[in-house]
Amino acid sequence: MSSVFERTSVRDYLPTPITKEEEKSLLHAAMSAPSAWNARPWHFIVIDDKEKLSAIPEVHPYAHMVKKAPFAILVCGEESSNEKANPFFQQNCAAATENILIHATELGLGSVWVGIYPEEDKVEAIRKLFNIPETIIPFSLIPVGHPKGVERKTKDRYDSSKTHRNQW
Question: How many CA atoms lie less than 13 Å away from 148 in the CB half-sphere?
Fold first, then answer.
């Protein structure tokens, strides 16, 4: 079965560190995401400093699990000079985020998508915490670690009532 169907949000992690190979593999997966106009507007901040990880929940009320994660990836989008690509940074960063989540599952790791953008208060707080330039937009945060007490089950969320053919 595909990792797409096994992926689940994991919010509790073992203290086992992530290897440099796993880290690089996750970033490689992120940068393999599709990108409108091939703009690839993403930047990634790898966070493994415990003080930084512990500071995140102080500015983002739904990110308490980050304290338990050995590391996290902050996905950011760069405003582009390409007028065609600029409006699509959100979709590009979402695709990169999803690639990280799915690949983490493939590696036997746990992860969860913590939204930042478009909530301006969170964007500004994270921007300040990580010294991010004004032209870069913090989009999502993904804590990653070895799952603690999580049983992976294949989920069937298919709902035929949500599909339409040729028209509504």
Answer: 13
pTM here?
0.93
pLDDT higher than 90, residue 140: yes
Domain assignment of residue 137, yes or no: yes
Q: Is 12 left (phi over 0), alpha (psi -120 to 50) or beta?
A: beta
Q: Is residue 168 part of a domain?
A: no
- Give CA–CA dist 143/55, Å, rounded: 13
State yes or no: pLDDT of 147 exceeds 80.
yes
Mean pLDDT of 38-42: 92
d(CA 53, CA 67): 6
Q: What mean pLDDT comes out for the span 86-93?
A: 88
CATH number at residue 110: 3.40.109.10
**Secondary structure of residue 129 in the 3-state scheme:** helix
The answer to the question of residue 34 being in a domain is yes
Nearest to 60 by CA among 109, 117, 145: 117
Helix (H) or strand (E) holding 115: strand 114-115
40 domain residue, yes or no: yes
Q: Which domain holds residue 140?
A: 19-148
